[in-house]
Amino acid sequence: MDGTSAVATIQLLDLLYGVFEWFLEDAYGTMMDRLAEILGVRMLGYPYMQRAYLAAVCIAIIGPIVGTFLVHREMAMIGDTLSHTAFAGVAVGLFINATFSLSLSPLLTAFVVAVITALLVELLIEYADTYSDTSLAIVLTGGFAIGSILITATDGGIAVGIDAYLFGSLATVLKADTGLLVFMSLLVGGVVSLAYRPLVYVTFDATAARAARIRVRRYKRLMVVLTAFVVVSAMQIMGVILVVAMLVVPVATAALVAQSFKQSIALAILAGEFAVIIGVTVSYAYDIAAGGSIVISAIGVYATVLGLEKLARETPISTVMKWGRNHEKRGEDGSKAGSGEED
């Protein structure tokens, strides 16, 4: 029975990978090739840039989805904490490979460390009577300290390998990394869709959620675990230091104009998509770090929306005031003209 299940699982994974390869090369790849011919932009036809754009688009979906819940729960900086501990996870993987001559994936160790950290943060908040920001600061600094110790323990031998994870890189986005992000997009989107109502309830009023017999702890832990998944999946392009930006900045942008929670999620995704497409393009054009380029683009989108929102808010008032001044001036001119006629 176990052997049959294992074979069935392997066959299912092979089928899914075959579907992904077809999508990446025959469907998405062909579309990008044609788009490159139509627009005359060569980079759109390069396979590694096609993977980079697809990965970035996925990041702009899963980041704002999870980030919207975190920001409204006032736990936005948990992304920063998990990214720094994911750095420790990457360092653990590279350290093991360098010390024992293995080929363990640093992403796998980063996933394990980030998930454990996410659950640890929730435990500290629930049972240690520690404020959330204090818990985050303790875990953040501890994770980064472990990572730095492991790097120096090998005389800096793994420092070169960790650079791509620290700052992000378009060239290092492999087919497997893209597949991971596509899978994470489906997983995060599916889980949030299924658990949307209790997650919203817990986010805005945990006390009322407990009264309604919703398992608050379970949904809080679910959200931090999803955050860990997002952080580790996105750090290949964003870098561990800047990955938190995609959890916060698009959400802040959407909050300027959104009228409801669902609208906030949709607009945050839209803002994120603008940021990653601009950021990846600029990163390739000027040969700069992809993560930094995407973050600056996201901040630029935020600043643009903020300026337009303020302009839209002030324009009707200024128009009315201008109309009132003109009307008053015409009234004064008419009074003067009437006085002149009587004389």
Automatic annotation (TrEMBL):
UniProt entry keywords in alphabetical sequence: Membrane, Plasmid, Transmembrane, Transmembrane helix
Region Disordered, annotated ranges: 323-343
Any one GO CC term of the record: ATP-binding cassette (ABC) transporter complex
Compartments, record wording: Membrane
Any one GO BP annotation for this protein: transmembrane transport
Basic and acidic residues composition-biased segments: 325-335
Tagged with keyword Protein transport: no
Residues that span the membrane, as ranges: 52-70, 106-125, 137-160, 180-199, 219-235, 265-282
Membrane topology summary: Multi-pass membrane protein
PANTHER family: ABC-TRANSPORTER METAL-BINDING PROTEIN, METAL TRANSPORT SYSTEM MEMBRANE PROTEIN TM_0125-RELATED
Family of the protein in this entry: Belongs to the ABC-3 integral membrane protein family.
Name of this protein: ABC transporter permease
